[in-house]
Amino acid sequence: MQASNHRLRDMEQHHPLLSAGADVETGGLSSGVMVGSPHAGHTASNRTLWFIQDSCGMVCATMTWFLVLYAEFVVNFVMLLPAKSFWYTLLNGATFNSLAVLALASHLRTMLTDPGAVPKGNATKEYMESLQLKPGEVIYKCPKCCSIKPERAHHCSICKRCIRKMDHHCPWVNNCVGEKNQRYFVLFTMYISLISAHALGLSGMHFFTCIKAQWNECSEFSPGVSVLLLIFLCLEAVLFLTFTTVMFGTQIHSICNDETEIERLKNEKPTWERRMRWDGMKSVFGGPPSLLWCNPFTGLRLRRLLLLTHSRRAGSEFSV
Question: Catalytic annotation on 170?
């Protein structure tokens, strides 16, 4: 396209001139659940409940919830409730269940938050002319979703969209990890690693206590069933603790170096001004360090969520 002396290149590699924060109200958010019209005075991302319709991702996300709820069942009904100490049950129960709720809330926020999708099909002649670029300037177009790629955006073949600051696509949260939901993914990995470590500690204490006493007095379940439930919980906790701890460390390292996993693997030279260490953390979690960084409910507007749910019942549109 040679309109107004500007060149539009169909390339997957990019060093575009658009800023990452540019919002374009053209087209709808595909691969998500559309609620209302994106032209109703709000940007498309504010009018959409994001959800990726990927069978593998939905199975993995369901498995994640099942495994967390299984851990809740074993910890509460096999180890804590039969314990003789009231304060031991109360303190460990409150801690474990609170962390589990925060982990599942972080998982939902990661899965249902638009990761930073670029509007689909905005690479039109009219939009190109509206950019008012200087003669000779070059912007880049994604040939797969026909959108103008902002800086640091990459195309996800599963989401079928270009995602700003895309780090990777995670099937366990059935979504890409990008500019707008990386915070919740970091919280998800942190809370899963914490409840995994807590479950391992409780399992060790339970084994030690039951070996000293009679197994029948340790649980309302039979000794054989209790041992099988605890062994499976320990295996699950070790796997989850290892995986999420590595992912948490990787994400923090990427944020502090202002470099996504894709950029690191592709060895892309930064063309942007890097936000290092605390500046990078502030840009992802928002504002100065505080306990709000650890709250996955921050920014969640219950009233708007209820309106979206009501609108969805009135008539929703699935777009892929």
Answer: yes
